[in-house]
Design a protein that fits this description.
single chain, 4-stranded antiparallel beta sheet, mainly beta, 35% strand, 8-stranded mixed beta sheet
C-alpha cells in the first residue's frame, strides 16, 4: 500500500515550501496553505513564474498572522487583517474574488523586495472562490492555489522523470502538498478516491505544468535549458495540443488529520 512520505505548505503563493510532519486538512486544503498572496495594484496575482524571487520568501504561519523573511530584507510580522479590513478584487488566472487587504508595512516590504508595487492580500471567511465546476461539486472552494486545494505526486513519478533528465531535480521543483511512495510511476493519474489518515480525498485531474518548474527553489534561477519542462513535454503531454502533466490535483471530501507515515488507501 502506498505511504505518505512528505507534507508541505506554501503559506504565501509562490513562496518557499514549508515541510510538516502532521497537518490539519480543511475544505480549502491543508491549513495555512496558500492563504496569502502578493498582487499588483490592479489585483492581478504575482507568482514565481514571472517573479522567481518569490520562491526565496519564507512565510511562516503564526497565531497572530504570518512571519515573512527574505534575503536582504528585515523580518516582518504580518497580522491577520481585521474583519473590517478593506477588500480588493483579485484575479487568479480566470477567477476573480474579493480578498482582504493587509496594507501598511506588508505592502511596503513586498514592493521593496520585488522591485515593483505590490500588495498583500489574505483569504478570509468572506472570500468565496469556487473550484472549476467541470471537476468539482458546487460547494467546493479553493484559496489562492492555482486551481485546486491540493497537489499529490508520487516519488516513483519523479524517479521516472529523473532517469530521463541530464541532471536530476528535487521534488520541490513541483511544489506538491502530498508526496507518496509505494506505487508505480504516474499511478496517481488514475486515483479517483483515496483515504489518508482521517482524510478522504478525490483525485480530479492531472496537473498541467508550466515554466515555474524550471525555477530552482534554492537560487530562484531558471534552468537555461528549460528543464525539467522540456523533457516532460516529450512524454507527458496530453494530446497534441494539451498540457504537460505531472502530479494529480485533489479535492477534499472529508477533512481531518494526516501525518507523514500514514497509509494511502486507494478507494477507487
Amino acid at each position: 500500500m502506498p505511504t505518505l512520505t512528505s507534507l508541505s505548505i506554501y503559506p504565501l503563493k509562490s513562496c518557499a515550501g514549508l515541510p510538516l510532519t502532521r497537518a490539519t486538512v480543511e475544505p480549502l486544503g491543508i491549513q495555512h496553505d496558500r492563504r496569502w498572496m502578493a498582487v499588483r495594484p490592479d489585483g492581478s496575482f504575482m507568482t514565481g513564474r514571472e517573479l522567481p524571487a518569490l520562491v526565496r520568501v519564507r512565510a511562516v504561519p503564526v497565531p497572530t498572522g504570518l512571519h515573512l523573511s527574505a534575503p536582504g530584507m528585515p523580518d516582518l510580522a504580518v497580522p491577520f487583517p481585521p474583519v473590517e479590513a478593506p477588500r480588493l478584487d483579485v484575479t487568479v488566472w480566470d477567477d476573480t474574488c474579493s480578498a482582504a487587504r493587509v496594507q501598511g508595512e506588508a505592502d511596503r516590504w513586498l514592493s521593496e523586495y520585488l522591485g515593483q508595487p505590490a500588495a498583500l492580500v489574505s483569504v478570509d471567511a468572506r472570500m468565496q472562490r469556487p473550484v472549476d465546476p467541470k471537476y468539482a461539486a458546487p460547494e467546493d472552494r479553493v484559496g489562492f492555489a492555482d486551481a485546486f486545494p491540493l497537489l499529490l505526486i508520487s516519488e516513483a513519478s519523479l524517479a521516472d522523470l529523473n532517469q530521463r533528465l541530464p541532471r536530476p531535480v528535487p521534488m520541490s521543483r513541483f511544489r506538491p502538498n502530498l508526496v507518496v511512495e509505494g506505487c508505480a510511476p504516474f499511478a496517481e493519474d488514475g486515483w479517483k478516491r483515496l483515504r489518508i489518515g482521517t482524510v478522504e480525498l478525490a483525485g480530479v485531474k492531472p496537473c498541467a505544468r508550466c515554466v515555474f518548474t524550471t525555477v530552482d527553489p534554492e537560487t530562484a534561477v531558471a534552468d537555461p535549458q528549460q528543464e525539467p519542462l522540456r523533457t516532460l513535454t516529450t512524454y507527458r503531454r496530453l494530446g497534441s495540443k494539451g498540457g504537460v502533466m505531472f502530479g494529480q490535483n485533489v479535492i477534499v471530501r472529508r477533512p481531518g488529520i494526516i501525518q507523514v507515515g500514514d497509509a494511502v488507501e486507494i478507494l477507487e
